[in-house]
């Protein structure tokens, strides 16, 4: 194998020196030809025009290989070669060289070939342009040059490829911006990392510039840059400039892509939220129209609504996050994105607020339905309690108890009608108004029939409660009439008993205080008149008692109170009245006898009667007086056989004494 190189050295014509070291091993001419083609492609045309000096180092090779290499140069680079210096061994080739004279072949080869020893190579090339292996002072590290060359070529290849790709990407993005309907190729990415390639280029350029201005790292002599290094610097700089320009554009493309991707992602999420809220979310609400027919049913609907709200809350959380992202983009977005972002934000907000409003309206309906059913249940229980009171038998002890019961009934009815039923109507009207406002939920579609059924149910409940209350009012009216009749019955019974007592008091007064018979006929007549009036009062009292007892009978019949009757009041009334009647007749009889007695005695006292008339009158006084005295000693006998005297014995003795005195005077 061999290492062919173009060192930094130059010949006396300023041409580059090409060194071909040969070895004892077999040399591949094909590989050598390729290497020469590669190396000759590095210098510029201007540099190649000055020609090459080729040093073929054959000290470790055979003559036939050297000859083959020299002849090959004729086919590879005849125009560029000016001189070929074959470095021969110190001995060994002298005889063989005679068989082939290179100088005679100069015209045919196109360049001069000389055989020279290594120590005599300085005759043709300055020592400062030769490396130490040929006795020169030029510092040259071929492996370092190869490594730098590989870095340069790798950078050139990658940067050129990357540059082409960036141009394609940037032009494609530019076309996409002009043609909005064309789908962007977001998956087209460069094959190399631009940052890495740029960093490699900067490091390479820095190395080239440092070697140019600071000399060889190894030091040790004058140094000048190689032609390929002089060419590499502007090439690297040009590539870096182009790459930076395209990379800047590419960064903008990436920024636009990222922004577009972010915008598309937001748009996708927005549409997911919108589609769910307007689709399944709205359908959930649309199917939940019922209000239940009881507290338990409305509570079950509220629990179902809470589950729906929980599902909506997850999407509302996404809405809040999206709204924050959109707000951030709006504050830092481009002018061209503002309209689209604001449109997305407005669409998202409209749908979310509308859905939230529907959820709140539905919650309000369910709350009102729960309050309505709760009030209806309370009213129903109150009406049931009132009905139970009305259906129970009334057995009060007296009129005061009846009045208290009636007052309690009327207060209960007033509470049901004024407070509870009015509250039910109010809550029912609120609920119907809220359900009527739910028509906006349907997004332009027909309102489901459940709404009308719910309203009919509400109205039906209120009408049913009104009818039940009306029935209770009617029953209260009947109960009130019955209780008033019972109060009247108790009153009649009480007044009838009072009439019996009054009549007994009149009888007692008649027996104990109505005992005087009068001192003369005039006074007796006055007592008769007073007695008649006294009897009239007793008669009225008796008649009043009879009327009350008759009214009691009628009321008992009206109340269907078969267990009640006048009891012993009527017999007592009749018994007292008969006693009073017997006593009154006895009193009238005695007063009439007293009046006859006084009249006859007064005729005798006048004295202007004839003897015969006077005798008859006197006899009449005696007869009536004795009869009256006998009458005063007789008791009043009642129908039941009992007896009762007028006044006390002393009263009777005084009246009898007065009659006897009057009889003596006559």
TrEMBL record:
**What positions does the domain CRAL-TRIO occupy?**
1-142
Q: Which UniProt keywords apply?
A: Repeat
Q: Name one GO molecular function term.
A: phosphatidylinositol-3,4-bisphosphate binding
- Report the InterPro entries cross-referenced here: CRAL-TRIO_dom, Spectrin_SESTD1
Where are the bilayer-spanning segments? Answer: none
List the Pfam families. CRAL_TRIO_2, Spectrin_SESTD1
- Look up the domain of life of the source: Eukaryota
Family assignment from sequence similarity = Belongs to the SOLO family.
Supply the name of the protein: CRAL-TRIO domain-containing protein
Originating organism: Esox lucius (Northern pike)
Taxonomic path: Eukaryota, Metazoa, Chordata, Craniata, Vertebrata
């Amino acid at each position: 194998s061999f290492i062919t190189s173009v060192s930094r050295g130059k010949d006396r014509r300023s041409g580059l020196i090409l060194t071909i070291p040969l070895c004892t091993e077999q040399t591949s001419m094909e590989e050598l030809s390729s290497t020469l083609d590669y190396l000759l492609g590095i210098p510029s045309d201007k540099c190649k025009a000055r020609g090459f000096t080729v040093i073929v180092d054959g000290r470790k090779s055979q003559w036939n290989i050297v000859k083959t290499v020299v002849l090959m140069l004729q086919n590879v680079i005849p125009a560029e070669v000016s001189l070929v210096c074959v470095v021969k061994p110190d001995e060994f080739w002298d005889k063989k060289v005679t068989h082939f004279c290179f100088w005679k072949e100069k015209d045919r080869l196109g360049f001069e070939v000389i055989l020279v020893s290594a120590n005599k190579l300085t005759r043709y090339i300055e020592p400062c342009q030769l490396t130490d292996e040929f006795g020169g002072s030029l510092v040259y590290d071929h492996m370092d040059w190869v490594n730098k060359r590989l870095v340069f070529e790798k950078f050139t290849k990658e940067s050129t490829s990357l540059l082409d790709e960036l141009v394609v990407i940037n032009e494609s993005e530019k076309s996409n911006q002009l043609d909005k309907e064309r789908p962007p190729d977001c998956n087209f990415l460069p094959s190399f990392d631009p940052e890495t390639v740029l960093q490699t280029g900067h490091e390479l350029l820095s190395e080239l510039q440092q070697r140019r201005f600071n000399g060889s790292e190894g030091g040790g002599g004058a140094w000048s840059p190689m032609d390929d290094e002089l060419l590499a610097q502007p090439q690297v700089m040009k590539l870096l400039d182009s790459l930076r320009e395209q990379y800047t554009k590419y960064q903008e493309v990436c920024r636009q892509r990222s922004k577009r991707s972010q915008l598309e992602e937001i748009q996708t999420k927005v549409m997911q939220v919108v589609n769910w809220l307007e689709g399944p979310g709205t359908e959930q609400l649309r199917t939940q129209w019922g209000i239940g027919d009881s507290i338990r049913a409305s509570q079950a609907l509220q629990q179902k609504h809470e589950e729906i709200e929980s599902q909506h809350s997850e999407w509302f959380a996404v809405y809040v996050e999206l709204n924050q992202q959109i707000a951030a983009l709006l504050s830092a977005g481009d002018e061209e994105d503002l309209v689209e972002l604001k449109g997305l934000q407005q669409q998202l907000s409209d749908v979310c607020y509308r859905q939230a409003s529907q959820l709140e309206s539905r919650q309000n309906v369910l709350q009102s339905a729960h309050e309505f059913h709760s009030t209806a249940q309370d009213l129903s229980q109150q009406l049931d309690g009132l009905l139970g009171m009305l259906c129970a038998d009334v057995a009060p002890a007296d009129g005061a108890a009846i009045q208290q019961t009636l007052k309690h009934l009327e207060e209960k009815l007033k509470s049901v009608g004024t407070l509870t039923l009015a509250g039910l109507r109010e809550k029912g009207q609120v609920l119907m108004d809220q359900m009527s406002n739910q028509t906006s939920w349907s997004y332009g579609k027909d309102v489901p029939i459940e709404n009308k059924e719910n309203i009919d149910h509400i109205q039906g409940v209120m009408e049913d409660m009104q009818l039940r209350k009306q029935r209770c009012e009617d029953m209260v009216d009947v109960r009130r009439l019955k209780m008033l009749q019972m109060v009247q019955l108790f009153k009649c019974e009480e007044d009838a008993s009072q009439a019996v007592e009054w009549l007994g008091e009149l009888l007692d007064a008649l027996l104990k205080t109505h005992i005087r018979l009068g001192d003369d006929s005039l006074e007796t007549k006055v007592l008769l008149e007073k007695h008649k009036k006294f009897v009239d009062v007793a008669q009225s009292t008796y008649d009043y008692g009879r009327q009350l007892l008759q009214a009691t009978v009628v009321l008992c019949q009206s109340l269907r109170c078969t267990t009640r009757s006048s009891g012993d009041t009527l017999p007592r009334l009749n018994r007292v009245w008969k006693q009073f009647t017997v006593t009154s007749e006895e009193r009238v009889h005695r007063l009439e006898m007293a009046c006859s007695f006084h009249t006859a005695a007064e005729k005798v006292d006048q004295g202007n009667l004839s003897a015969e008339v006077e005798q008859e009158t006197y006899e009449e006084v005696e007869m009536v007086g004795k009869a009256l005295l006998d009458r005063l000693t007789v008791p009043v006998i009642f129908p039941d056989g009992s007896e009762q005297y007028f006044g006390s014995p002393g009263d009777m003795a005084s009246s009898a004494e007065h009659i006897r005195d009057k009889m003596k005077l006559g």
